[in-house]
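User: I'm new to structure prediction. If I give you an amino acid sequence, what do you actually give back? Let's try with this one:
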Amino acid sequence: MSLLTNINKAFDHRIRLGIMSILMVNEYADFNTLKELLDVTDGNLASHLKALEKEDFISIEKQFIGRKPNTRYSATKIGKKAFKDHIDALERIINKQK
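Assistant: Good question. You get back a string of structure tokens that encode the predicted 3D arrangement of the chain. For your 98 residues, that looks like this:
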């Protein structure tokens, strides 16, 4: 088995890696929370969220809080497994180098 097996291209970018890391340890996070934690622009965050959504790695829930729209994101079962496999593959690479 290659060391690169299970390295998922969807998580190549640091912002996507950050989004998934946040969603793995939280039931959900809203757009503004992700934006603050990752220190990114609206457009940049939106494009990376869309890429993860396209892969079915995250789910989106839109709601209103008072009169303000609120969008929450959570990792799907597929997304959690893919991310765990990705992290496990990275750990195998790191441990192989010791």
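You can read the tokens as a compact description of the fold. Here is one thing that stands out. The radius of gyration is 15 Å.
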